[in-house]
Specification:
single chain; 292 residues; alpha+beta; four-stranded antiparallel sheet
Amino acid sequence: MEERPATWDLGQKAATGYRGAIKEGKMSREKNISQLSPSEIRNLIRKGKWDKPTPGLAMGFAQANLVILPQRYAFDFLLFCQRNSKPCPLLEVLEPGQYQTRSLAPDADIRTDVPRYNVYRRGKLEAAEKDIRTLWQDNSVTFLLGCSFSFEEALIRAKVPVRHIEENRNVPMYITNIPCKPAGVFHGPMVVSMRPLPPDRVIRAVQITSRFASVHGAPVHIGDPSAIGIKNLGKPDFGDAVTILKGEVPVFWACGVTPQAVVMEAKPDFCITHAPGHMFISDVLNEELATL
């Protein structure tokens, strides 16, 4: 059993809304979802009993974005991540054909332990899957990237509101006009996640998230969304819209859905990712990723 951090109960509120999505009796013998360890949640996912977004789950443990590409694209994408570490902070890269991580969660299976996967062919979203074992190839290379869900525990502890958790929703994500640095075949715009904050909590949010560079770090933009090409905060490109209260400031963080926007532009023959907001939950504590 993984060590539970002191802030484990922070996921209780988020999990309340998700419980309603589980059919009555389906988890009758399971613990409340907010009380499960990362490995227990992955086991539910593997059995097809959980296919919802993961914000607020396994509080205290890091979550990760997923990108799987044929080996012929692997170096280009590795270079892309190195040049664009803000939206694509690498946590782990697996050998070709390998589907078990060495450091993030050694007992996990990348092919079954993500709630939902997106399957892209030549830049077009072809399918959404819950299990990709039939799509797995011996030359598949897996990239696991840091996710901003990992710093939300620290925000909540500091009484910085996280609206999508309060409202039991997926985080809103937007394609911006901020270009990523190209590498090989990969090029395209940055995607950002947004959290509305009271003005007096913005600086604190910047301070807190700056400690977590490996899960996107400090915001990339604060304030006017049109300055980064976002026309309507009420219509995110991925995820769910959230309530923005009068006087609140939209704060934007680089997002690990960026590779999906890039894949749409670069059009590699084949790519598998997580569905936005449906993350890989690791056994690594968030504090292990903090720099200060």
